[in-house]
Amino acid sequence: MQCPHIKVTVVDISAHRISQWNSEKLPIYEPGLDDIVKKRRNVNLFFSTNIEEAIQEADLIFISVNTPTKTFGVGKGRAADLMYVENCARTIAQVSTSDKIVVEKSTVPVRAAESILKILSANHKPNVKFQVLSNPEFLSEGVAVENLLNADRVLIGHEETADGLWAFKELSKVYLNWIPEEKILRTNTWSSELTKLGANAFLAQRISSINSLSVMCEVTGADVSEVAKGIGLDSRIGPKFLQASVGFGGSCFQKDLLNLVYICECLNIPQVAVYWQQVLDMNDYQKSRFSNKIIESLFNTVTGKRITMFGFAFKKDTGDTRESPAIHVAKTLLDEGANLNIYDPKVEPEQIKKDLTHPYVTDNPENVIKSIEIHNDPYTAADSTHAIVICTEWDEFVNLDYEKIYERMIKPAFIFDGRKILNHEVLATIGFQVHTIGKR
Ligand SMILES: NC(=O)C1=CN([C@@H]2O[C@H](COP(=O)(O)OP(=O)(O)OC[C@H]3O[C@@H](n4cnc5c(N)ncnc54)[C@H](O)[C@@H]3O)[C@@H](O)[C@H]2O)C=CC1
Ligand SMILES: O=C(O)[C@H]1O[C@H](OP(=O)(O)OP(=O)(O)OC[C@H]2O[C@@H](n3ccc(=O)[nH]c3=O)[C@H](O)[C@@H]2O)[C@H](O)[C@@H](O)[C@@H]1O
Fold first, then answer.
1. CB neighbours (10 Å) of residue 407?
2. Active site residues
3. Distance between CA 36 and CA 270 in Å, rounded?
């Protein structure tokens, strides 16, 4: 959109994903994205599986592949799996017939650019040169387009040489089409890589900090919204990322924090590792605490009871369920023998089934399938259920007719508001037993 003079080709090893990008229904939901893709597709934006051709044609190549937590071998469950990044580097080296600037866009451990450069340097064709830049991405899902258009900053780390500086200038030229120059931050490569991990760790830490206070609120009578407001009005702290929740989800915070902790352990600085591990431990505690509260409140048994879940995605305005706290809560309730009615207007039913029958979640997929019903209407989802559970902060859930919902439910009817979005007092007047996170 911002660079009509630049040809952008998105390539992926998944032919299925590319065909979805070339179809009417894109593989992800992101506000504003459909419109952009419709306007630019086959104009200056192309989606293709012809990876070799795209590499040969390109001057700048962004590596934006997944860097998930390793599920095997050394660093299992903590280290970032760099297999996909490495495969990209090898393909680029083997295929390139002209000089390239390779941009590390994926989130990676500090000094990953060094490995990329080594692979490129050891495998290239004669007379082909590479520069590797670190240019981490800071967008959030659900507001991705807005974040990209109005980025707080664009960070570019480069090798401290004349060629490195040249590469930085080439990439800056692209961003300068819509980002003011003063927002482009130039650092060395390693600072850039660590800034990305650090930024996610800081954001996650704020959530764990307010969640830790939510626990105290529930036992002391303080109200976490009031506490968060009072804290956030200090201009040194600021109001953002202080909403208590069932815990943070999403594909990155947990993965990147685990990676940071693992790097600290490898660098033999256990004190720093333990510090950041606490952010993750608090997050796990919050998820378990919320699930246990539901069971306890429903007279210590949910076996055979039907419970409604509003929201399954890890946040509003996305269909992404990766590491969603709703999965943890659903798993705990299913383990206790509950039946779940799940309503999330943005998540595909198949995705919910896939998440809840994943071997990590259950060793009994047939039972799970029998115990869940996926609804496309919030009112039928509430029919004959004992409780409504909210893990996602959608405004849509605020605007429902709760009197109508109450009528359809088994009494006493409970609401467990893990995002503190509903009006506690109004619901209590209707007759609901309400549990709101961070409030007694
Ligand atoms: N999702 C987000 O909002 C953000 C993600 N990031 C980082 O961006 C990276 C990608 O994240 P997502 O897009 O969420 O992952 P994703 O898993 O949704 O997408 C990665 C894509 O890369 C493709 N791929 C894997 N190997 C390939 C190869 N050799 N050649 C071509 N394509 C290949 C996969 O098929 C997949 O479609 C991660 O490092 C993540 O930490 C950073 C900021 C925001
Ligand atoms: O590296 C990444 O992938 C991205 O990770 C996060 O973005 P994202 O995970 O898409 O979404 P967030 O808005 O950060 O929300 C993450 C989780 O924290 C929760 N959250 C957020 C804010 C808050 O106050 N409380 C809270 O519980 C959300 O509900 C959600 O589950 C960061 O915000 C982005 O800057 C970063 O680029």
1. 14
2. 252
3. 46
Instruction: Compute the distance between CA of residue 150 and CA of residue 138 in angstroms, rounded to an integer.
Output: 11
ipTM of the complex, rounded to two decimals: 0.99
List residues near ligand 1 (CB under 6 A).
11-14, 17, 51, 64-67, 84, 87-88, 106-107, 137, 139, 141, 251-252
Taking a C-beta distance cutoff of 8 angstroms, is the pair 223, 420 a contact? no
Which residue among 65, 253, 317 has the greatest number of ligand 1 atoms within 8 angstroms of its CB, and so is best to mutate?
A: 65
Rounded CA separation 389/115 (Å): 46
Asked if residues 49 and 17 have their Cβ atoms less than 8 Å apart, the reply is no
Torsion of CA 411, 416, 420, 426, to 10 degrees: 10
Provide the total of helices (H) and of strands (E) in the chain, helices listed first. Answer: 18, 13
Residue 311 burial by Cβ neighbours in a 10 Å radius (0-12, 13-18, 19+): buried
- Distance, CA of 353 to CA of 372 (rounded, Å): 8
Contact indicator for 333, 412 with CB cutoff of 8 Å: no
| Ligand 2 atom with least separation from CA of 211 | 27
Instruction: Scan for tokens 């200090």, then name that residue.
Output: 234
**Dist. CA 361–CA 367, nearest whole Å:** 12
8 Å CB contact between 218 and 438: yes
How many Å apart are CA 151 and CA 146, to the nearest integer?
8
Could you state, in chain order, the average pLDDT of each consecutive group of 10 residues for the chain (440 residues)?
Answer: 96 98 96 97 98 98 97 95 97 96 97 95 90 98 97 98 98 98 98 98 98 98 97 98 98 98 97 98 98 98 98 96 98 96 96 94 90 98 98 93 98 97 95 96
Q: What is the pTM of this model?
A: 0.97
- What is the CA 314 to chain-centroid distance, rounded? 7
pLDDT at 124: 82
Find where tokens 């659900």 sit. Answer: 142
Q: What is the pLDDT of residue 123?
A: 84
